[in-house]
Specification:
Layout (H helix, E strand, L loop, with lengths): L5 E4 L5 H12 L3 E6 L13 E5 L5 H15 L4 E4 L4 E3 L7 H29 L2 E6 L12 H21 L4 E8 L6 H5 E3 L11 H16 L5 H12 L6 E4 L1 H12 L2 H12 L3
Parallel strand pairs: 1-2, 1-4, 2-3, 4-6, 5-8, 6-7, 7-9
Amino acid sequence: MDNQKVVLITGSSTGMGKETALLLAKKGFLVYAGTRTPKKLENINNQNLIPIKLDIRKPEQIKETINKIKKEHDKIDILINNAGYGLVSTVEDLDEKEMFDQYNINVFGLLRVCKEVIPCMRKNNSGVIINISSFLGKIGLPLLTLYNSSKYAVEGITDSLRYELAEFNIRVHSVMPGFFATDFAKENLVTNFNTFDEKSPYSKTVSKLAPVIVEQINNGNDPKEVASIIFDIIENEKFPARTTIGEKAKKFIPMKKELSDEDFERRVKEYYNIG
């Protein structure tokens, strides 16, 4: 077994995942950049970065991909669960497929990858799992109920896994970004047709909130900041269980801790001019 640390990142073709893959490869890690579209990474000239096809909706593909890495190296030192997307819809307008798709990637996909990676880490009595969550995994917003709740689930998974894996020397952390300037708004936000219909009873909320959220994403922090904090987590064995990063996360998460639920809700409504 060589000394080079082996990393697997999901959702690596754009944004935070790509920047993290690039940074860790430059730092000397051997990075398997999992993505449904490996061609997007083929022009990167770094032998430490290996694009690999990985669709976390497909259990057999996950198993095949991870077995390939283990066969090559007999280890996976670091897992970064980054793949995800956001559904924008009211609960009233949801259909069964939209509900399943949101959880299938953000929650079930994360669990599928953990399930396959953990035995390897446990065998080696070492590992780091970093789940990319969201500040919306701690606060709610209208139109994002499914996304919010999927990230709340990621936070719960992180907490429980920390207990479950501690005796095997496996660290588990979550990163809760605010809004970052990535392609998320263009490629990873899915909108429900009925919710965005001008005749929708929720059209007032949509007209006020949706443009603001998109604007905040498009003008958010640089995703390289997330890559940097992930590197810090890997390097620091005493790093806290979770960390916030980005303007909105650093604004709202401490506020939620300080205020009552009712006062916090009032502040959020005032900030986003809703309710």
